[in-house]
Amino acid sequence: MPKAEGANTFEVELVNLWGEEFCRVLRKVRIGLAGAGGLGSNCAAHLVRSGFRRLRVVDFDCVSFANLNRQFYFQEQVGMEKVYALRENLLRINPALELEPVVARVGPDNFRPLFGDCDILVEAFDDAGEKQALTRLFFAVRAEHPRPYLLVVASGIAGWGENDAIRCRKVQDCFYLVGDEKTAVDKEHPPLAPRVNVAAAKQADLVLDFVYRNRHLWAEKAVAKEQHW
User: For 55-110, what is each residue's pLDDT tens digit?
Assistant: First the structure.
């Protein structure tokens, strides 16, 4: 079918899948991703393909050749800041994407301004200590304000094989863990594309399922004319 002039064919096809009402919800949800490595870059791709449009991705690192075995980047992007390289790649999926790239290291001093206005937060760090710190900050903000509504954390995704052990565990209504919760990255268990991508896809699926089940949170605020940040 020929593309209509000015039409975003990708989003037209999403409407065919979801219907216009839920697509409006998907376009309205703000998702924060803490990290743009193996988890963050691949999870972001799944989210964009699912119809989410508003992402804020925070990472301080640049693309290296060592990243290419599992992260959503390409050789010509080596040396680029990951958040900008990721935006470049995701815009090729959906030109209407509204991705805000932030070059920063997440910490107690900037967590609230970075993620306090996000509806959902996806943790995508490598370091276990950073994962725990982010979780504590999430609950500290949640004690004062209902947003973010959901935190999805990954734990135990290294190595290969036994991919059915990568499971989703509901800790609280607002908090899910993805992974086998034991296999950390080390010399015997390197980070590899298959298990990393399984976890990233499950993180994205949890987000999608949460939004669908709670779509009233955004449908009540949805308007015909999309508003930009």
Answer: 999 999 999 999 999 999 999 999 999 999 999 999 999 999 999 999 999 999 99
Q: Is 82 left (phi over 0), alpha (psi -120 to 50) or beta?
A: alpha
Given a cut of 90, whether residue 8 has pLDDT beyond it is: no
Structural domain contains residue 6 = no
User: Does residue 42 form part of some domain?
Assistant: yes
Cβ neighbours, 10 Å, residue 172: 10
Structural domain containing residue 197: 31-219
DSSP letters spanning 148-175 = S-EEEEE----SSS-GGG-EEEEEETTE
Give the Cα separation of 132 and 6 in Å (integer): 45
**Number of structural domains, the chain?**
1
146 CB-near residues (< 8 Å, 6+ apart): none
> Is 13 a domain residue?
no
